[in-house]
Amino acid sequence: MLFSCSAYKQVPYFQDAKANSTLPIENYSPLTVQKNDILGINITSLNPEASAIFNNNLTRTNGSNFDVSPVNPVMGYLVDQEGNINLPILGETKVLGITTSEVQQKIMAKVSSLLKGASVTVRLLNFKVSVLGDVEHPGVFPITNERVTVTEALALAGDLNITAKRSNVILIREMDGQRTIFPIDLTSNNAITSTHYYLKNNDVIYVQPGKTKYAQVSRGFQTGTLIVSALSVIAIVFSTLHK
Length: 243
Hints:
Blueprint: H1 2-8, E1 38-44, H2 48-51, E2 77-78, E3 84-87, E4 91-94, H3 100-111, E5 119-124, E6 128-133, E7 139-142, H4 150-156, E8 169-175, E9 178-184, H5 190-193, E10 204-207, H6 211-241
Parallel strand pairs: 6-10
Antiparallel strand pairs: 1-2, 1-5, 3-4, 6-7, 8-9, 8-10
């Protein structure tokens, strides 16, 4: 009974959260464009034929816009190793380290002198996060907007299994050419206010399995071994008796 009570205390999320409390959102920072990102840029104007030249990037890889599977992504504009994208007529535009809204403003400043009534929208097409470990459905999840939290990513993976360690979820993030590891304690309210609560492109979340998970697997392996051994003994005895 004491073990059960102790184990349960590790299960609920945000245990120190107070009912009806208000937490200001001060830990969110907009995504910024990085090298190898893919931007979907749509430019429209009063002359659709004139603006169509900029929108070839909105077609999908195999040419079929009806196939929306991950293996047929929208092509988009690739951010090169110098942090630039190359648009028809407009040429190179520096986009590294700025938000998609700022990219939109840059392109608008260039295209407004060429197209009457121009309008520009910019989206990050390759935003994805990976969730691994002791969750219901581990995998890589594309994100359709630019704002996703740790808890939302875990929800996409079907939530943590009951055997998962909630007090030490690991976030792996690529920053400035390095991978950095951040621990996140989901049993604490501090997880919500952490600067790592909002995810960035290519973040990896790893959920460690608890000892209970190992015990389950270990017992299953031991039981299987005993069954195989017992069947082997029965087969030997049966063979001996019928000689």
